[in-house]
Write a structure and sequence with these properties.
The chain has 15 helices and eight strands. It is α/β, with parallel strands linked by helices and 319 residues long. The protein is elongated and about 85 Å long.
């Protein structure tokens, strides 16, 4: 390219990118056809005359979303910028993002399942009020009693139903019972069996992701003790969804806690068309990786710290 051609290319690029001229206007000014103008603009980028940058704080989160979607084969990933905020504000921002994502889907579904926990609380607390009488809400795990009631699936489901001016079911059972035999008897009772079956038939399920740790919400609520944590680790538990524990491959493990929990199982979740997971906290990265590897999650909503940790963990596992 001689200096005259380069000069003309720079002139055309300046008019188009900096002065917002249309290709038709440039064509008339320089006396060249529109296809030639288009070709020269393309060549200007190839020659490094034009370099395009997206200057926005959300750019890096979009890149993280794309990487996670490709690595885990997800339908969608939504990553919010943490921007050095505290843990509670980050959880709120994730809840806002999840609420915005789910709200756009409600016109196209008839049933939605709701799990339990702190991430679910933030999601529902941030959900905008709207009229969605077409959607029936279903709790996916039991939850009774007066302690931590705001985190129970029944309470969260009812709270969201009020915001949506719609109906919800109630699972008349605790999340966890003393014995496997008691669980089976409760699961066979008509009222509980009907709600569990409703849960299996939802179009969308929204869940959190937990870890077998003394720092977990389940431990905080008294659902298991130190010896349970030890036995979970001995059984190779990597994490839990809907209080159903799984291993590093995201597969259900044989453990007494799973057998005593009144909830939809991982197999049930596998058969739901769209499962949306909401989570934060890099201490959960191994648990989240295992859950995504298992394949029951189609959509992930998290923050950029967790997203970056997840990508690095995935790459290390693949080495």
């Amino acid at each position: 390219m001689d200096w005259k051609d380069r000069r003309q290319m720079v002139k055309i690029a300046k008019l188009y990118y900096l002065e917002s001229w249309t290709q038709s206007e440039i064509s008339k000014k320089v006396g060249l056809s529109r296809p030639i103008i288009s070709k020269m603009l393309h060549q200007a980028k190839e020659a490094g005359i034009v370099e395009i940058y997206i200057n926005d704080e959300t750019l890096h989160t979009v890149e993280l979303e794309n990487k996670i979607e490709k690595k885990y084969g997800l339908k969608d990933a939504v990553v919010v910028a943490s921007a050095n905020h505290g843990a509670e504000l980050i959880k709120r921002r994730i809840g806002q993002a999840a609420a915005s994502y789910v709200a756009k889907k409600l016109d196209h579904i008839t049933k939605m399942g709701i799990s339990w926990g702190k991430s679910m609380y933030s999601f529902i607390d941030e959900f905008p009020s709207q009229n969605q009488e077409n959607v029936h809400l279903v709790p996916m795990i039991g939850g009774m009693g007066s302690n931590y009631v705001h985190l129970h699936s029944n309470h969260l489901t009812f709270h969201l139903a009020q915001k949506l001016n719609t109906t919800s079911s109630y699972l008349h059972a605790p999340a966890m019972v003393e014995t496997d035999d008691l669980k089976q008897r409760l699961m066979n009772s008509k009222d509980i069996a009907e709600v569990i079956e409703e849960g299996r038939e939802v179009d969308i399920a929204v869940v959190g992701v937990g870890i077998p740790s003394s720092q977990s919400t389940m431990a905080e609520m008294g659902y298991f003790a130190k010896e349970d944590i030890h036995s979970l680790k001995k059984a190779d538990a990597a994490g839990d969804i809907n209080s159903q524990f799984y291993n590093a491959q995201g597969e259900d493990i044989s453990h007494p806690l799973n057998k005593r929990t009144i909830a939809l199982t991982l197999e049930d979740l596998d058969n739901i068309p769209e499962v949306i997971a909401i989570t934060d906290g890099v201490e959960k990265v191994e648990s989240l990786h295992a859950a995504l590897t298992g394949g029951c999650i189609q959509v992930l909503v998290t923050d950029d710290q967790m997203a970056q940790a997840l990508i690095e963990y995935y790459d290390e596992e693949k080495e």
